[in-house]
Design brief:
Keywords: Methyltransferase, Transferase. One of its GO terms (molecular function) is methyltransferase activity. This is Methylase. By secondary structure, the protein is α/β, with parallel strands linked by helices. The chain has 8 helices and 8 strands. Helix 4 links the parallel strand 2 and strand 3. The longest helix has 18 residues. It is globular.
Length: about 270
């Protein structure tokens, strides 16, 4: 156990990260399916799967539609949980005890590392160190996904961090923020504030980029409702469309808007 690691409750629910799986399958198909060179050995790592490996197994099923031979490795800090998950192991599905210093061998580079709902507690200052530690295992252009969701997966936010070069000492680039809701709890932009990644939760204050972002989205949402877009899905779609006209980096893909996703790629990346 490294100084970066901290025990979590480990509670999760089936389906909690399916919206994240769906996004990755649609917008990162080459990352998930690539098999040339070192990518033939590149794995997907699910860090901190908890008491039950439901999310790991669900992701394995989703991603193997794109790459049937994909190796999936579930990592859990508590040894008892890692041992209990072995009943679900198979030729391409492995469960290992470990933390942010991932238990990968030299011939297991990572194409995708996911660490959801692990950093909500503890100091925000450790987040960049965790990103750096996890990013070391990625192949160039590999992706690290780190963030939070509510217990049911109805509201989710995540950093999308890309390893830009072969330099293992370089931290992954903070490429984008991903937001998703299934509208089970209605919709207003501030619905996401409490589920921001740990290092951004206290940055929604005047003078900070996250405050500017939410202020612009709230204004777009109010205007959308005043224009008659009052149902949660309609208000979401219209508010994101209006936000995109006043704030750079907002993805305007129709599937995203219709499915409750917002992706924000500010120029220069997401400010820490």
């Amino acid at each position: 156990m490294s100084t970066l690691d901290a025990k979590t409750r480990g509670r999760t629910a089936p389906g909690r990260l399916r919206a994240l799986d769906a996004y990755l399958c649609r917008f990162e198909p080459r990352l998930l399916s690539r098999v040339d060179g070192a990518w033939a050995r590149a794995v997907f790592v699910d860090v901190g799967f908890g008491e039950h490996p439901w999310t790991t197994l669900e992701s394995a099923e989703a991603f193997r539609v794109l790459q049937p031979e994909l190796t999936v490795i579930g990592v859990e800090l508590e040894e008892a949980r890692a041992l209990a998950a072995q009943v679900h192991a198979g030729p391409r599905t492995h469960f290992r005890q470990g933390g942010f210093e991932l238990p990968l061998s030299a011939d297991e580079p990572a194409r995708l590392v996911r660490a959801m709902n692990l950093l909500r507690q503890g100091p925000a200052e450790r987040v960049s160190d965790v990103h750096h530690a996890l990013g070391r295992f990625l192949l160039p252009s590999g992706l690290l996904v780190e963030g939070s969701s509510d217990p049911e997966g109805s509201v989710l936010t995540a950093h999308l961090l890309r390893r830009a070069s072969a330099d293992g000492d370089a931290p992954p680039m903070r490429e984008a923020l991903l937001f998703h809701t299934d509208f089970r709890n209605g919709f207003a932009p501030l619905l996401f504030r409490d589920w921001l990644p740990r290092d951004l939760r206290r940055r929604v204050r005047p003078g900070e980029p996250m405050h500017t972002f939410f202020q612009a989205w709230m204004e777009a949402w109010r205007q959308a409702r005043e224009a008659g877009h009052t149902s949660p899905p309609d208000a979401f779609r219209e508010s994101v469309t209006r936000l995109g006209t006043r704030l750079g980096g907002v993805a305007m893909d129709a599937w995203l808007l219709d499915s409750g996703y917002l992706v924000w790629r500010p120029e220069g990346g997401v400010s820490p």
